[in-house]
Design goal:
This protein is of the alpha/beta class. It has helices at residues 4-7, 17-28, 47-58, 71-85, 99-111, 128-134, 154-164, 184-197, 253-265, 272-283, 288-308, 335-346, 372-386, and strands at 34-36, 94-97, 117-122, 138-143, 168-172, 200-204, 229-234, 247-250, 314-315, 323-327, 348-352, 363-367. Strands 2-8-7-6-5-3-4 form a 7-stranded mixed beta sheet, sandwiched between helices. Bound molecules: pyridoxal-5'-phosphate (PLP). It catalyses: L-aspartate + 2-oxoglutarate = oxaloacetate + L-glutamate.
Length: 388
């Protein structure tokens, strides 16, 4: 008999994934499908990073690596965070993890006792409810609305936190799927709610290098927040290193010390040659990051032009991340209906809004992850389809 902790992981994870799997099955059967589904940069990891990975592996960095992360990498991550946020950060605030996903799990393990309520903002990244459940906590959604730019309302968060006695609030800005960048006032409001309720703010900032409009603010930098904020970071999106599984958690020293024990008993760290490559990625060449982000910026601008030529599919105004969030409510179709029909008729796969929570049923998420000409063609086909 399997534990309910394991069997409940998909619960609340959102519908609509059948479209993703249908697209994959078609592709496996040899049918060409234009996939605009998952958040995976189409650029491969930079050859210089791979060269360093190879060098490190052949130099023998293939044994067990020190669990919290090699000191030089922890220092480099701490320096990056200090420089970008102004919050003094040392290696003792850093745990190197196998991707941001593992850091999300670790943060909820640190913040929540079994059965505690953990708040998340909807629409949300697809694994959030399952990650919270895996950590033994109970996810509670707080909906956001398109007319408020998908920003959470701190008063609503306060109500929900009181009602549930929450131990943590998970925020994600720049946001997947909406692309929203939360303004300072919103983050200040949320920080105040977390302080008043004496709970943790878990800030998922894996898209912090993909800022197209406005400014990214890490809530850890707000007054008094370094003590109650845990930040998720990753090289998956910033350096096209999704498959290398390398990310980090930033937290107060005491939390990191406890989480090193968690890592010792679960992941046992990240391969040394991957850590060496990550160190290279973070310290050797400032051009690596903008090089990965640039195609998304370009395609987003291209999309704005294409979508301005029609008035059926709306583009949700966004500030960052590698997606378009499209408003298809004018078609009268749900996200699932639209995405399924688009796949059947045009072999174009997008994510229905429902995959990110039921309140996003009238929306689609389109990843900016195929070459410009094919991307423009697919988006033009999508808008033409919406008009029929
Ligand atoms: N957080 C968000 C919002 C994401 O979109 C993703 C990946 O898509 C992750 C975390 C996990 O990324 P990784 O585990 O590859 O670092």
């Amino acid at each position: 008999i399997l534990s309910t902790r394991i069997t409940s992981l998909n619960a609340g994870g959102g519908d609509g994934w059948e479209i993703f799997y249908k697209a994959r099955a078609l592709r496996t059967a040899g049918v060409p499908v234009t996939e605009l589904t998952i958040g995976e940069p189409d650029e491969r990891t930079d050859p210089a990073i791979l060269t360093e990975m190879h060098r490190a592996a052949t130099a023998g960095h293939t044994g067990y690596a020190i669990v919290p992360g090699i000191p030089a990498l922890r220092d480099a991550i701490a320096a990056r965070v200090t420089e970008r946020t102004g919050v003094p950060t040392t290696r003792d605030n850093v745990l190197v993890t196998p991707g941001g996903q593992s850091a999300l799990f670790a943060a909820h393990m640190a913040a929540c006792n079994p059965g505690d309520a953990a708040l998340m903002i909807e629409p949300h990244y697809v694994t959030y409810p399952g990650t919270i459940r895996a950590a033994g906590a109970i996810p509670h959604s707080i909906e956001t609305r398109p007319e408020h730019s998908f920003f959470p309302d701190p008063a609503e968060v306060r109500r929900k936190a009181r009602q549930t006695g929450a131990s943590a609030l998970l925020v994600n800005s720049p946001n997947n799927p909406t692309g929203a960048i939360y303004p300072r006032a919103t983050l200040e409001g949320l920080a105040e709610v977390a302080c008043d309720g004496d709970f943790w703010l878990i800030s998922d900032e894996v898209y912090d290098t993909q800022i197209w409009e406005g400014e990214h603010l890490s809530p850890r930098a707000l007054p008094g927040m370094a003590e109650r904020t845990m930040v998720i970071g990753s090289l998956s999106k910033s350096h096209a290193m999704t498959g290398s599984r390398i990310g980090w958690l930033i937290a107060p020293e005491a939390a990191i010390a406890a989480l090193i024990d968690l890592a010792t008993n679960t992941t046992y760290g990240v391969p040394g040659y991957i850590q060496d490559a990550a160190l290279y990625a973070l310290t050797s060449d400032d051009a690596l990051e903008p090089r990965v982000a640039e195609p998304f910026r370009r395609r987003r601008a291209q999309a704005q032009e294409i979508l301005a030529r029609q008035n059926i599919v709306g583009l949700v105004p966004s500030g960052g991340a590698m997606y378009l969030f499209l408003d298809i409510r004018a078609t009268g179709l749900s996200g699932i209906e639209f995405a399924d029909a688009l796949l059947d008729t045009h072999r174009i796969a997008v994510m229905p809004g429902e995959s990110f929570g039921p309140s996003a049923a009238g929306f689609l998420r389109v990843a900016l992850t195929i070459p410009d000409d094919r991307f423009a063609e697919a988006l033009t086909t999508l808008t033409g389809f919406a008009a029929t």
